[in-house]
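Duplicate of #3305? Posting structure anyway:
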């Protein structure tokens, strides 16, 4: 499938602002991939599909979690978390995307995880810093992303955990595993 064909499919799945976000994540992923030496084609492919499941119903996504090997913790916490692992499953089963590196980057794009690959970090960070985003602390992450991929990921996860704790939201274990992984590397 060509990039344009993939984008056409994704466009049908998403609302216009979410599709516009996706296009920005594609460009940001390419920028980061070039900067840090990741595979540019795979980074763009993962970015194109990363929010594919964003508008699937909670019922459909929950059912998929329990029927597949996606960890049940994603369904238990639910909410924003489901579209990442479910999206990875659906682009494989519905769209025939089979590159495991790409599928992993889609799967971990919301929580992160322990031992993320270079490609996973690139897509995770691109989703966070794409130019359409604005939230507290973002400028520091963008500046760090000019230099140090791991440090920028650590900062973004710190921000996310702080944001979630302040709203008294549950934190997925993979979010903590990602945080610990990046924090431990600095010790
Ligand atoms: O899909 P996007 O909006 O482009 O971005 P995303 O897939 O990174 O999702 C961001 C949302 O996910 C944001 O509202 C925070 C939430 N999130 C990330 N990690 C966790 C989480 N929510 C919970 N409850 N627990 C987490 O560990
Ligand atoms: Fe997402
Ligand atoms: Fe499961
Ligand atoms: Fe996104």
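Output from current build:
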């Amino acid at each position: 499938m060509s990039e344009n064909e993939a984008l056409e499919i994704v466009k049908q799945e998403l609302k216009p602002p979410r599709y516009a976000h996706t296009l920005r994540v594609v460009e940001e992923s390419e920028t980061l991939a070039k900067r840090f030496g990741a595979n540019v084609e795979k980074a763009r492919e993962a970015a194109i599909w990363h929010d594919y499941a964003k508008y699937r119903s909670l019922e459909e996504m929950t059912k998929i979690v329990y029927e597949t090997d996606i960890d049940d913790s994603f369904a238990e916490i639910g909410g924003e978390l489901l579209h990442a692992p479910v999206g990875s499953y659906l682009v494989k089963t519905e769209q025939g995307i089979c590159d495991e590196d790409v599928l992993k980057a889609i799967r971990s794009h919301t929580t992160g995880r322990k031992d993320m690959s270079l490609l996973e970090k690139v897509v995770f960070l691109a989703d966070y810093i794409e130019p359409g985003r604005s939230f507290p602390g973002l400028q520091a992450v963008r500046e760090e992303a000019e230099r140090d991929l791991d440090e920028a990921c650590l900062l973004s996860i710190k921000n996310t955990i702080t944001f979630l704790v302040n709203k008294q939201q549950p934190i997925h274990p993979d979010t903590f595993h990602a945080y610990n992984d990046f924090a431990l590397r600095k010790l």
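Confirmed duplicate; merging threads. The chain has a mean pLDDT of 97. The longest helix spans residues 16-36.
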